[in-house]
Amino acid sequence: MNNSEKLLEEGTGQADESDTLAKDTRDTQIKPTRFPRLKRGVALVLRWTLRFLVVFGLGVATVILALYYPARRQLILANQQASNLEAQLAQVSEQLSVSQARTNSLEADVESLQEELNTSDLHVTLLSALSDIIRARLALSINDFASARVYLASTPDLLEKLALSMGDEYLDVLSAMQVRLAQVLEEIESDTFAARSDLDVLANNLIQLEVECFLTNR
To answer: Which DSSP state fits 144?
Structure first.
């Protein structure tokens, strides 16, 4: 092979290398611009998504600031008020309990006082009947029949009150005393001695009744 052929082959090889380089350069330049619309679409979607997320985040923040925190504060305040009301209700309930206890105690005291009053009233009734009988006995001792009848005028009613108030336990005794008093009123003028004896029996019965019912328990 002579020099000219070598030069020709070298020139051909260099030309092929230049064509290859040019082709690679064209391919490199073409590749970045092969999908421009797709990239722009993706970028647009990303921008709108980002904008949406920003707007959504601002909306959530606005709702939290405008609604959640005020509502939470109102809820806390309402709970505090409810707690205060419960404490006041408990205090009122305690006061009512104390007042009820005092009322019950007062009612018990009133009942006790009423019972004592009733007992005292019966005692006074018995003493009044006893006083009438003793004074009538003294009047008969001097044959003052009129005064004796005056002294015994209210005695039947007193014995009737005792019979109705002292219960069945003393009903027979008091009934017998009422019968004996009726006999006294019939025999004051006709049989003064018997009348005086009956009055003595009535006085003794009343004294025994007083001791048994009003003095022994004390």
So the answer is: -
